[in-house]
């Protein structure tokens, strides 16, 4: 039954303690966020897009999800807030000249630096590998490091020259607190857009149904006559109907347009032939 031959078990072999929590490799976690699509888990390749929460996706993966949302995918919860392709922005990234791609280590016999990134900040040259915070502009899609925007303060994009505001910046792969802040800002922005659409629609309906008041002189003074608003489209349709009606009436001789005036009527001359 064990312990034969005079073996003495040790305490750690008899008493089972709590299991050690496995530590997550930070390098692998950073590589998953900055080198792989958050939806398909495939390597990022152009065109690359980002959502309002700062997650990175391959554009074709997002399009496939929008075309068929019922298909089974492993990470659909990360794209639940994406309603259409307008909810993502295609990124204008700057290539890293030191990035050699997968060709250098195709055989797997070379050291591969996990912190070597495909893209860099075009202003200060920092690599987009997760060690430094990066953000993108919702106006143009250009990507910069947060340090560059802090050190070189401007209201014009450093890369393309388009104007932007502070609220147009979205942190890429931010912390939990930063993503909660972006989530709140996204919900407020969508609520404002929905309210604006409703108010604009109500104004159009009120303008179309509101009558015009015209002043007309009466026997006891001025009086107001209400006249409904007629749009350009309805005016054109009424005019076409009147023209068709007049053309139809002109076929008959009893219509005013078919009658001749006295000047148009010729005098009838009766000729009686005489035969001798």
From TrEMBL:
Which species is the source of this protein?
Electrophorus electricus (Electric eel)
Query: Which residue ranges does the record annotate as region Disordered?
Result: 190-242, 256-276
* GO terms classed as biological process: DNA replication termination
Q: Where is the signal peptide?
A: none
Which named protein is this?
Answer: Replication termination factor 2
Report the CDD domains cross-referenced here.
RING-like_Rtf2
Record InterPro entries:
Rtf2 (IPR006735), Rtf2_RING-finger (IPR027799)
Indicate the segments annotated as coiled coil, or none if absent: none
Belongs to which family? Belongs to the rtf2 family.
Q: Name one GO cellular component term.
A: nucleus
Pfam families found in the cross-reference section: Rtf2
